[in-house]
Amino acid sequence: MNYSTFSLRQDGALLRVKLSNPPINLVNLKMIEELFQLSGQLVADQNTRVVIIESADPDFFLAHFDIEDIEKSITDPSKAGNYPDINALQALALSWQALPQVTIAKVAGRCRGGGLEFILALSMRFATVDSRFCSPEAAGGFLACGGGTTRIGMMAGPARALEFLLSARDFSGAEAERYGLINRALPASELDGYVDALANSIARRSMAVIGMHREVFKHAFLPTVEPLFAALAAENDGMRVAMAGSEMKPALDAMLAIKQTRENELDLPATMQRILPAR
Amino acid sequence: MNYSTFSLRQDGALLRVKLSNPPINLVNLKMIEELFQLSGQLVADQNTRVVIIESADPDFFLAHFDIEDIEKSITDPSKAGNYPDINALQALALSWQALPQVTIAKVAGRCRGGGLEFILALSMRFATVDSRFCSPEAAGGFLACGGGTTRIGMMAGPARALEFLLSARDFSGAEAERYGLINRALPASELDGYVDALANSIARRSMAVIGMHREVFKHAFLPTVEPLFAALAAENDGMRVAMAGSEMKPALDAMLAIKQTRENELDLPATMQRILPAR
Amino acid sequence: MNYSTFSLRQDGALLRVKLSNPPINLVNLKMIEELFQLSGQLVADQNTRVVIIESADPDFFLAHFDIEDIEKSITDPSKAGNYPDINALQALALSWQALPQVTIAKVAGRCRGGGLEFILALSMRFATVDSRFCSPEAAGGFLACGGGTTRIGMMAGPARALEFLLSARDFSGAEAERYGLINRALPASELDGYVDALANSIARRSMAVIGMHREVFKHAFLPTVEPLFAALAAENDGMRVAMAGSEMKPALDAMLAIKQTRENELDLPATMQRILPAR
To answer: Strand B60-62's sheet: what is its strand order?
Structure first.
């Protein structure tokens, strides 16, 4: 299959996915569609045991959900999801979470919004110490509703999660490790080596061995399944409140007015603070 | 409303609470009553979105529950709580936990016993790296029963919580961060700036946005509610065992005999080890 | 009672257990039997309040389950467990977890496989920063089935636990602390002093005080009990899959062929990578 928003490279039992959706690796509907297709392909792929997701752009692992596509999904009913309690990004994340392969995000640069929500559903996350993680939604009058509010809460605990989400600032990779959002942060010069060594180790395991570990975890974490889905539904309830309110639409319009340029996105939190009204 | 154990300063949507109950910021019944009144005031306060709790005393954020008042509540039935399964400090903590505002403790100096139990129920906690956190109760023959044993267990996990509680020593802010009791520890020169920047960011969010995040967490952490209340009841069961036993009363008497002076309280764990009998 | 795989030293309310099963402190059936007997002794021991488990061998705290005994339990029905859903190492760990005393592992050197699984059930764990923790099972075609897969999952969370278990590499004490597997890692020169001070503090508490803390935790962590046992059963399901497959037996045979020598065990992960076939 041919994909336009990422490239694939097979290396034995290891599949490398290189995200490339210029100019700034926005998560748009096209990328979501293609990542869905890739997960469908992986379900039936008997040869791949480990997947590494990395970025072709050293500054942007994934920028965030394309605001133009958010606006479309609000204003154009044909672009809205078909199910009230699960949205496209939540569904994408769940489909990747359910894959039999071990999936690893290797983050350098910025990973924000919907991009962060996506990788929180992968098996593992590694990053450079000075990569930047951010959920900018609260500053725009809404919330991370692709599973991010839920998963950040469950991973970091309520106190640190609320700080991360409501501050809407960039957290470094080192901070993300301390808050439990990633397995670990590494100096930029060590990240590739560390993740490659790990992926190669895991690629030596059979699917039977990987599966028996997952089966134990399935039982150990069974009590989190029902709260996960209830919280995902609450994310959508929150999004409906936001869409009915008077904050979100003007914020998105203001962001679109200055375009999603590389210059504006490098320090997105500062850009948002600058153009959005003080309360 | 006028308060005698703390002062208030409103700064836009931010309310600063400065604890001041000389000489050493003991948590006494008067302070508990006033903190209850403040929480009642905040429930109806539409203008405040963030609350910072700090201390006027650089050495004592909050010393601990006033031992004179503990003795009264044991010996004077009219000072005992009305409900067997919830006590005054547990109720205070729960009332603050339920506030719609984001509540932040900013700790320098010592934060021990009931003072620590109170801030564990706030939304977030920050401290200087050399602040001191301690649950001295076990050394006095009883247990933290204002929600502290329960919340420390849930935040730090059983192994680290048992170490913290049974050692009854001072843990530095840096250690408290590693054990998950606070969001993070910062150098003394950076604490104010960090917490102010965070509070100002959160003050820019609407109550609608803050509320939709909390609603997601409510579902994500629903399985912890029943265990929280069961464990709070077990704290009171433990306290009844302690009050019926022969360790606690002599320990409290010994502490009262030397007075709760600043000198004795600066290194409270050492003071307790010195005056309480070895087993 | 006389034990051959460890020595005991009573020091007031503190019992020191020094593991000594030369040449490399393998966990064999004899040691398991004796640790079971010791737990039975401790249940009825009114004088001991704290137990420290340490090793007489500075290089090996506990090597791992003796592979000869694993093979016997697979091939000799009389050595197999009597219950399908709980095995000997799980039962040993549960019996120690249920002890009234506070049990502390003090780790220097290597702590791998079944040795690690055992100490994960103790009350607390401390280690030197350069000690080595490893679950080598996945590299041998099976899984940690003495409660380790379950407890590592619950302590480290699924992402870090899967990294730890599937990589099958040595993690330093410092890394084990970051992943939540131990209370803390300390410089080698500070470990004894830290653990002794803690043990002496806890030894000053009465069993009533220790017990009232545990009782609160029992309620706070009640929701983890059912998943713990379901996951232990899943470990045994996984082990049956491994024993019926074609990976584990040849891997164990290959390991036995080169003997469990000190030289081969010092860097066990490297030894396994060298002699086991690439996939």
So the answer is: B60-62, B110-112, B132-134, B171-172
